[in-house]
Write a structure and sequence with these properties.
By secondary structure, the protein is mainly α. It has one domain. The chain contains five helices and no strands. The protein starts with 5 loop residues before the first helix and ends in a 21-residue tail after the last helix.
Length: about 150
């Protein structure tokens, strides 16, 4: 059975949620303008609770799936985690590009959403890749040298 750190999954999901919140705090007005929505009226309406709950659940599902890939592929350091995050990001990037081609979504809008996915996937992958459950060694995650010490 694969060993997953479920606490790391929750932390990665929360980190992704917070990163996405910050991302859209920065790019939110541009998103509204690209969608043809008045930012002032959108701010008054607010975000429905169900939409926020969806994003939390979505982050948990994505974090769990990334944890599965981290465990299955043996990702154990930040560089492997970054590679995994970029490789997985290709999927939402291509889906968003398809919306530009087939649904006339503005390219800049898709680019903003794609950037959000890149940040979230990199953040989650790194958290999950470096914080693995069941590592041998000390608290810093270093493995003890083999063949040394008293027997």
């Amino acid at each position: 059975m694969l060993r997953m750190n479920y606490l790391a999954v929750v932390v990665a999901a929360v980190a992704a949620f917070v990163a996405s919140f910050v991302w859209y705090a920065i790019f939110g007005n541009a998103v509204m303008e690209l969608r043809g929505v008045d930012p002032a009226s959108a701010a008054e309406a607010g975000t429905p609770a169900w939409a926020m709950l969806f994003v939390v659940v979505q982050s948990l599902v994505v974090a769990f799936m990334l944890a599965y890939f981290v465990a299955r592929l043996g990702v154990a350091d930040w560089s492997g985690a970054v590679r995994l995050g970029v490789l997985i990001w290709v999927f939402p990037a291509m889906i968003l590009l398809g919306s530009v081609v087939h649904e006339d979504v503005p390219l800049m809008l898709a680019a903003i959403h794609s950037g959000d996915w890149l940040v979230k996937l990199l953040l989650m992958s790194v958290i999950l890749g470096v914080w693995r459950k069941g590592r041998q060694g000390d608290a810093a995650g270093r493995r003890p040298a083999t063949g040394t010490g008293p027997r």
